[in-house]
Design a protein that fits this description.
By secondary structure, the protein is α/β, with parallel strands linked by helices. The chain is built from eight helices and seven strands. A seven-stranded mixed sheet has the order 3-2-1-4-5-7-6. The chain is globular. The model is unreliable at about 150-160 and about 160-165 (pLDDT under 50).
């Protein structure tokens, strides 16, 4: 089933509260992701699932940043943030399906997706599109919650599965599955955000490295 209508409906409801719910609690992971993707001057950067634009003020002012999101309500708030913060480096904020991007191959030097892999219906297709639009050797950074291997957290995640379509969230996305499907070099994996419950994966758009690197 196509999850895009459910995603749009969920974020239509969440957009007024999004900055409160995802602001401070995810700031450290957001800051780390942008820093990894935004190391050099004059980069072309794509922010996939830009939301209300919480990460946009963190990008270098000499960057050329494009943000995409499936929710027009979220994008409206992001555009307001760009105007309020006076961010001339944000070139465009576009309504777009992350699994079917309208960009040409190799359009960006770096691609970032924060808390998107658990929302889309096919995380591997998401990564494939991110890889396609990124230049060879470019940075691809993903921040996301991934399914726990066991214990109480895994029980909670499994209990949430029936509600996935309603809330637009897929708690069963597995780190190894995503990394294996990406066919990208894994530069690093580390825990981020409150309690380290989320992971940051830094890929490079080259041949894959040893999956053992995922043990972090």
């Amino acid at each position: 089933m196509d999850s895009l209508p459910n995603i749009r409906a969920s974020y239509r409801r969440l957009s007024p509260l999004y900055d409160v719910l995802e602001g401070a609690i995810f700031h450290s992971g957001r800051k780390d992701a942008v820093a990894l993707a935004n190391k050099r001057a004059h980069q072309r950067i794509l922010d996939v699932g830009v939301g209300t634009g919480l990460a946009l003020p963190l990008y270098r002012r000499d960057a050329w940043v494009v943000g995409i999101d499936a929710s027009p309500e979220m994008l409206k708030r992001a555009k307001t943030r760009v105007r309020r913060k006076r961010l001339p480096n944000v070139a465009a904020l576009l309504e777009m399906d992350a699994m079917n991007m309208a960009f040409a191959d190799r359009s960006f030097d770096a691609v970032v997706a924060m808390h998107v892999a658990s929302v889309v219906s096919d995380p591997i297709k998401l990564i494939s599109e991110m890889k396609r639009v990124c230049v060879p050797g470019g940075d691809i950074v993903v921040v996301n919650h991934f399914a726990s291997s066991g214990g109480p957290l895994r029980m909670i995640e499994q209990a949430c599965r029936p509600f996935a379509e309603v809330i637009g969230f897929r708690p069963e996305v597995r780190l190894m599955h995503l990394a294996d499907g990406a066919r990208l070099q894994i530069v690093q994996v580390r825990r981020v955000n409150l309690g380290g419950y989320w992971r940051l994966i830094h890929f490079r758009n080259t041949a894959p490295a040893d999956p053992a690197r995922l043990g972090a």
